[in-house]
Design goal:
By secondary structure, the chain is mostly beta strands. It has a single domain, classed as Beta Barrel (Outer membrane phospholipase (ompla), Chain C). The chain is 6% helix and 60% strand. The chain has 1 helix and 15 strands, in the order αβββββββββββββββ. The longest helix has 17 residues.
Amino acid sequence: MIKKIFPFILIFLVSLTAQEKLNIFPGELNIQPFTANILEPKLGFLFQINDNELRLDIGNSVDALHFNLDDGSTLSMGLDLFTYTLLRGESNFHFPVDAVDYLFGLNFGFKHNLGNMELGARMRISDNSTHFVDGHYDGPNQQWRDGFSPRVYSREFLEFIPFVRFINLGHYGGVTYIFHVDPTDLGKDAYQAGFDYYLKDAINKWLTPFAAYDLKLVNLYERTANHSLNVGLKIGNAGGHGLSLYYHYYSGYSVHGEYFDFRREYSAFGLNVDI
């Protein structure tokens, strides 16, 4: 059946491309990641202050299709593939890996430009799973660190985030529905809101101060708030590729699934290669 349909799909895509309505792997994102949102694709580090833990992010989001509407709006479909890893700092530049989380899925976006204003929304359907790694194992004592052995944690979720951006300031709010989760007694909904502010041309076009905040109400065994704050400087394109150096503050339940019911509060210095 697929073999019969594929030629017609190919002809349709070629026809759209000829009309300059469809771009395949356009090389840029229709919707940039929300700066302070923890679950975004990143390439970089978070070095916790006054602690020996750090976070390593290796991931990317790639738009596979952009479809341009006649009113100037853009529809998009993309792929998310990334990991976020918890490491410990030890002597002699050793950084054993304690836990690693994987997230992969599809995203769909809509963006409409109104002069100095942008309106849009992003929807993601994703799978998130996590594992302890050998750095969590205490070899000399032949046991898991702190007596905390691996446990199953995974979730599949649907996330919807509308947003509006006016010149330098962007606001967003959204909802997440978790349609499958282990452990099964965890809540299945979450809500969030946030902003990011990029002070473009304050220094020059290549150096942009920024601040961003994200509030997420998660539902584990009760509802609680997670806070994420970033303040820093971006080198490069304020609305695209670049390098961000920033201060990060986090308070709430751990982003790492093996520690999903552990509360964390820390400050960190971050370095990120923005996609």
